[in-house]
TrEMBL record:
Transmembrane segments: none annotated. InterPro entries: FAD-bd, FAD/NAD-bd_sf, FAD_aromatic-hydroxylase. It comes from the Bacteria. One of its GO terms (molecular function) is FAD binding. It holds the Pfam family FAD_binding_3. Residues 9-322 form the FAD-binding domain. This is 2-polyprenyl-6-methoxyphenol hydroxylase. SUPFAM superfamilies: FAD/NAD(P)-binding domain.
């Protein structure tokens, strides 16, 4: 499909939103380049669930079987105390389980998306945008490598700290810090690890989460309550020291995790913040994914938003020759969905991160109550009707043809 005013599009970011966008833009006939700051695909990360809008997009891309084949094999969530005793068990069929029917490692999803776009889309790794100069006909892009290229449109599908967003919007992005820091890393599997995810609350507002993967290792997440301290800006070795000090003497498997942190090569450590933007485009530049609306893992909608947003943005650009109109239509379709995803219930996330041993014991008692068979049966009974209603009104994914 040839467009009069838009032919060449630059997408910055090769995680989930970027390659999904590139796939659909190529499908509609655009010439697409994807630039990624990292030297290669960033294949680290934790489990992501594929459901709702994301699953619809995956089916339309024809990659559902590959995604299913990469399932992490997780069968449910167990809450344990510091003695590793199970206090509550939620199989993936449970309405209260964090585990979804289809779980895949973020890196595996990134790899699948890359495989289905690399032959049709130009990928540039180890480079990034340093300057944008727009006129009425194009955007002149300067890269860190010194290369200069003109594109009709530039779309940032970067992460929460998007550098391209700052070039376009200056300081317009607002961050809503949720009072938490989180760290992800891959660790060696031990005899305590199984196909069940294990969640453990400890005093000090710390939550440990260990989840199985399909590679014979275990994915660890450590999240703790804290004032905003700027840890995300520290060098990796200093981040490791901060994290180890924070979990020191926390109990459960903290000593094991401290040892794994020291030797980790894929540690990710950042504050948990939402991104709030009043608009997602200026001129020929547009935002999508976390750069536009990071909802944090707490919302459980990151992949849904990344893939549905990319699908809709590409579809709207295919539907009209006026890119400004396409950007407006894209935002109109996505805005309510994003804002609903960013709404958190009262006392969340704070209620899940008690700082005292007494608070942890109260939380564990509540978990045990909800994990009881009578309560589970009652919740699942009512959830069946509610689930159908939510899925029906979640977001419309038009058939753009």
């Amino acid at each position: 499909m040839t467009k009069k005013d838009v032919k060449k599009i630059l997408v910055s970011g090769a995680s989930v939103a970027g390659p999904t966008l590139a796939y659909w833009l190529h499908y509609y006939g655009f010439e697409v380049t994807v630039v990624e700051r990292s030297a290669g695909l960033r294949l680290g990360g934790q489990n992501v669930d594929v459901k709702g809008p994301a699953l619809q997009v995956i089916k339309r891309m024809g990659i559902e079987k590959e995604v299913i084949a990469a399932n992490t094999t997780e069968i449910g969530l167990r809450f344990v105390n510091v003695k590793n005793e199970t206090i509550g068990e939620f199989p993936k069929e449970s309405a209260l389980s964090m585990t979804q029917e289809l779980e895949i490692l973020r890196g595996d999803l990134v790899s699948i998306l890359h495989q289905h776009t690399k032959d049709d889309v130009q990928y540039i790794f180890g480079d990034y945008i340093t300057r944008l100069a727009e006129d009425q006909n194009a955007v002149a892009v300067t890269f860190a490598s010194g290369k200069q290229v003109e594109f009709d449109l530039v779309i940032s599908a970067e992460g929460i700290g998007s550098g391209t967003r700052k070039l376009v919007f200056a300081e317009e992005a607002k961050y809503k810090y949720l009072g938490l820091y989180t760290a992800y890393l891959t660790i060696q599997k031990t005899g305590n690890d199984s196909r069940w995810a294990r969640w453990c609350n400890t005093a000090g507002g710390i939550v440990f989460l260990l989840r199985p993967d399909s590679y014979g290792t275990t994915r660890a997440a450590i999240t703790f309550a804290s004032a905003e301290m700027g840890y995300e800006k520290l060098p990796v070795e200093e981040q490791k020291a901060v994290l180890i000090q924070r979990i020191k003497n926390a109990g459960w498997e903290s000593e094991r995790l401290a040892g794994e942190i020291k030797k980790s090569e894929d540690l990710y450590f950042d504050r948990v913040s939402q991104v709030k933007m009043t608009k997602w485009s200026i001129g020929r530049c547009c935002l999508t994914g976390d750069a536009a609306w990071c909802v944090t893992p707490i919302a459980g909608k990151g992949i849904d938003l990344a893939m549905s947003g990319a699908y809709i943005l590409a579809g709207e650009l295919s539907r009209t020759e006026n890119y400004r109109e396409a950007f407006t239509n894209y935002e109109n379709r996505m805005r309510n969905y994003v804002e609903d995803a960013q709404k958190l219930p009262p006392f969340v996330p704070g209620i899940v991160y008690p700082r005292s041993k007494f608070g942890v014991s109260i939380l564990n008692a509540v978990v045990s109550f909800f994990a009881s068979r009578p309560v589970q049966s009652l919740i699942n009974l009512f959830n069946t009707k509610k689930k159908k209603k939510v899925e029906k009104h979640e977001i419309e994914l038009p058939d753009y043809g």
